[in-house]
Amino acid sequence: MTNADPQELAKFSDLAHKWWDPESEFRPLHQINPLRLDWIDQLASIKGKTVVDVGCGGGILAESMARRGAEVLGIDLADRPLKVAMLHAMEAGVANVSYRAVAAEALAAEQPGHFDVVTCMEMLEHVPDPSAVVRACAQMAKPGGWVFFSTLNRNPKSYLFAILGAEYVLKLLPKGTHEFSRFIRPAELSRWIREAGLDHREFKGMGYNPLTRIYSLNQDTSVNYLVACRKPAA
């Protein structure tokens, strides 16, 4: 069975036409994308590298990595966002990014050890078995390759900030975007990373200032956080 939740796929498919509107429900993705892109590029130096973006949605990160000179494949199981991503790349003239409707586990079986860089951002909390996605990401990476994840911590503060604050008070996201029970504690993700044979390299937190409306990377992983890993070279 495919490791996907039909309700989650439908949720993002229904909003696909708004994906590249920076003032839409996807405004937070547009705002955080430069932060995560720079962080990935600083560590992995993506120019000239082969990259797969797992759970790429409408292609915001995938296309931006291609603009930095990477050869990028974006994969997702939601058809409408993929079509939006393809159309946007074509209209923007970004030729070094392509998209496929394929599960991470299937691509890992098809192309093990193929990619220099694997990214899986804001996706793990939307699938039934996130540990399987972590394993697939590790399998797709070349020896010595980089693997990046981002997700949401599970604690009272993250419920307050990521659901009540972001979805109901500040209305940064549509109501129902996240399900608290699916949030992932750093210790849980760390265990899956180790079990997949990856080495931790860096944890980063991501914060939001509601007064300035500015996102920033920091050391506070209590709500949103990112993880950089490497696959051992030998």
UniProtKB/TrEMBL annotation:
It catalyses: a 3-(all-trans-polyprenyl)benzene-1,2-diol + S-adenosyl-L-methionine = a 2-methoxy-6-(all-trans-polyprenyl)phenol + S-adenosyl-L-homocysteine + H(+); a 3-demethylubiquinol + S-adenosyl-L-methionine = a ubiquinol + S-adenosyl-L-homocysteine + H(+). InterPro entries: SAM-dependent_MTases_sf, UbiG_MeTrfase. Pfam families: Methyltransf_23. S-adenosyl-L-methionine binds at R36, G55, D76, M121. Pathway: Cofactor biosynthesis; ubiquinone biosynthesis. Its EC number is 2.1.1.222, 2.1.1.64. SUPFAM superfamilies: S-adenosyl-L-methionine-dependent methyltransferases. O-methyltransferase that catalyzes the 2 O-methylation steps in the ubiquinone biosynthetic pathway. Belongs to the methyltransferase superfamily. UbiG/COQ3 family. PANTHER family: METHYLTRANSFERASE, UBIQUINONE BIOSYNTHESIS O-METHYLTRANSFERASE, MITOCHONDRIAL. This is Ubiquinone biosynthesis O-methyltransferase. It comes from Aquabacterium olei. The lineage of its organism: Bacteria, Pseudomonadati, Pseudomonadota, Betaproteobacteria, Burkholderiales.
